[in-house]
Amino acid sequence: MSSYTCSTCGREFSHCALLRNHIKVHDNAVVDKALQKISEEEEQACEQLEEEEELSYDEQLEEEEELKQLKEEELSYDEQLEEEEEFGYQK
C-alpha cells in the first residue's frame, strides 16, 4: 500500500484524495496569513494618512492665523495713515 506524505507538515495519508483535502488546510492558513498581513498594512497606511492629514490641517490653521495677523497689521497701518492724513502729519 502506498502512502502519501504532506510536504508541509510530514503527515502521511493512505489515499491521494485525502492528501489533497489535507493540503487545503495549509493553503487556507497561508491565505489567512496573507490576508491578515494585508489588513495590517492597510491599517498602518490609514493611520499614516490620518497623521499626515492632521499635520496638514495644523499647518493650514497656522497659515490662516498668520494671514489674519498680517491683515490686522495692514489695517492698523492703513488706520495710522488715515489718521496722519487727517491731522496733516507727514513723515
UniProtKB/TrEMBL annotation:
Segments spanning the bilayer are: none
Does the entry feature the keyword Zinc-finger, yes or no?
A: yes
Q: Which Gene3D superfamilies match?
A: Classic Zinc Finger
Domain named C2H2-type: residues: 4-26
Q: Which UniProt keywords are present, listed alphabetically?
A: Metal-binding, Zinc, Zinc-finger
Where does the record place Acidic residues bias?
A: 42-66
Recorded source organism is: Funneliformis geosporum
Q: Work out whether the entry's keyword set contains Transit peptide.
A: no
The UniProt annotation puts the region (Disordered) at 42-67
State any single GO MF term.
zinc ion binding
The name this protein goes by in its record: 93_t:CDS:1
